[in-house]
Amino acid sequence: MNIRTLCLGILFFEEATGYEINKLASEGRFSHFIEASYGSIYPALTKLMDDGYVTVREERQVGKPARKVYAITEKGRKALLDGLYDEPGADIFKSEFLFVCLYSEFLEPNYLSEMLDRRVEVLEEKFQMLHELSERCDHPASQFAIGYGKALNRAAIEFIKENREKLEARHERKTVQAAH
Amino acid sequence: MNIRTLCLGILFFEEATGYEINKLASEGRFSHFIEASYGSIYPALTKLMDDGYVTVREERQVGKPARKVYAITEKGRKALLDGLYDEPGADIFKSEFLFVCLYSEFLEPNYLSEMLDRRVEVLEEKFQMLHELSERCDHPASQFAIGYGKALNRAAIEFIKENREKLEARHERKTVQAAH
DNA sequence: GTTCACATGTAACAGGTTACATGATTGG
DNA sequence: CCAATCATGTAACCTGTTACATGTGAAC
């Protein structure tokens, strides 16, 4: 899914500026299943304007630059809803963490343990974040999406806690070692 | 993590051709947390050669094109292991499925139910695939990675089964509808 | 006969990231 | 005083995808 569709999807629920869309996509209630950055959001918004899917309203502010508040149009609403009927692609999961884990037996034991500690910590923070989001949300579909994120997060935390010793035990010591 | 590192990581465990690396990354025991395609693998292998991280051996075959079997060098081994000490970036999860779910109340009820059915099916197939992989694997670290994938998969399946009715019930019927 | 598995590779293109440029206000 | 938040935008760059090009043998 491209950033244009993402912007349209967010604007479907509420008016927003590019800055706010970035926040929603990187910290807010879309953040656990979507990626976006300024460099892609602003051009996407411009394109959406050109195509008549959104409108802008400029709000002057004292001291700060004017904010450009985008709102979806009927045409944009219809385009989004129509697009929903294309079978969604498979979820994408990429994990450098798991990649590193593959070579755990070659890592310094302390480093491995610290990495696992940090990972659990980060996942717990994320879980907490999602939990707070879900408490401040009364839209059932959004709750579902947040709940899904929480479920995966919890599963990851529990899995690491229950299985980390299998990595830390390092059953057979390998001879190949990196010099450090 | 780029494709070069991925190729190096696979070659760390075993010699392989570009074709085989593609299989491992798209169906094999790396497939649930890594993405790669021919268009990126072959050039990555060439680059790895240029940098002295791998060597090639050409195996002529009757009827089929010669296969180029790549093998990691000491330099490559060291480079991979050294790279492991860079803190792994956060896991990336992208889901068009969850995005579509956000607008479930605007979808035709039948379509929504079918989409959820299909999604559970796909996830169950994936789980089965991972399960079979883990049975044919005796490397503890790989087992950990596969187990992690299975845990997340199971969590997703259970969450959908337990919560789909909340989407399908459509608490408040919205008036905005796409024409179909 | 047609599709699948094997096998390598390139080129055009899409898509997005990173860093940069700019600048005021608020809170610690 | 410094960092963070608010706020917009561009340009160079990187990375990877898709589609194409080519060809055999086996299975169905």
Q: How much is the radius of gyration of chain A in Å?
A: 21 Å
Average pLDDT rating of chain A: 92
Global shape of chain A: elongated
What's the story with the biggest beta sheet of chain A? 2 strands, antiparallel
- For the record, give the distance between the C-alpha atoms at the N and C termini of chain A, rounded to a whole number: 42 Å
Number of strand segments of chain A: 3
Uncertain stretches of 5 or more adjacent residues of chain A: none
User: What class, by secondary structure content of chain A?
Assistant: mainly alpha
Number of separate structural domains of chain A = 2
Per-chain topology:
The structure is a homodimer of 180-residue chains.
Chain A: H1 3-13, H2 18-26, H3 38-50, E1 54-59, E2 67-72, H4 74-83, E3 92-94, H5 96-101, H6 109-135, H7 140-168
Antiparallel strand pairs in A: 1-2
Helix pairs in contact in A: 1-3, 2-3, 6-7
Chain A binds a DNA duplex (28 and 28 nucleotides) through residues 2-3, 17-19, 35-40, 42-43, 46, 61-68.
